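User: I'm new to structure prediction. If I give you an amino acid sequence, what do you actually give back? Let's try with this one:
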Amino acid sequence: MSKPVCAIPGAGPGNGLALARRFAASGYRVALIARDAGRLEALATDVEGAMAFACDVGDADSVDQAFAAVTDAMGPVDTLLYNAGAAVFGPIDQIDAADFHGAWRTNALGLFHCANAVLPAMRAAGDGRIVVTGATASRKGGANFAGFASAKAAQYSLAQSMARQLGPEGIHVAIAIIDGVIDTPRTREMMDKPDDYFLDADAIAETVYQITRQPRSAWTFEFDLRPFGERW
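Assistant: Good question. You get back a string of structure tokens that encode the predicted 3D arrangement of the chain. For your 232 residues, that looks like this:
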């Protein structure tokens, strides 16, 4: 039996790499997908059996080409972990319209394109998993979050609609509401905070993996993750 295939749009050194390692450890072949081909190749060397595929998730042709290449090289995608995201912060009257659109393009339109790329194979199998990396901003738009919150809210609504449509077809759609800052060298450099302030990417990846193992009689759609020291 061939190994199942997990595709991770938005693969990077934080959640993306942790997700790749966790699923690879459980026997998956992992497709790392992002715009920066050089960075992807470096990440792929850290994950057994992983392959890198350059892609702009906001461009339909780029997505179609990337996922066709994944299928040719690895097989049909069994699990889509949509981790791509773009953030723009600032007051509504100070953020740039292009940045506002870019956040929506990556968070919502990219999910639309990637989901459509994997659906034919999942439907043919009558089985599949799609997990989206969301954010608390999708549920409450704070001051100076006009760009990010609106993009994540659009992503959340799309994921919810997909879950309700695709569940009866055997395709489990879920979204992780991430409430906090991921622990990476970059965030550590930017923020002088204690360990309890940060979310551990490996812990997030473990929870996501367990969500994809749920029996159909008890599927989760929305789950939130935060460090215990986070105020909520």
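You can read the tokens as a compact description of the fold. Here is one thing that stands out. The mean pLDDT is 92.
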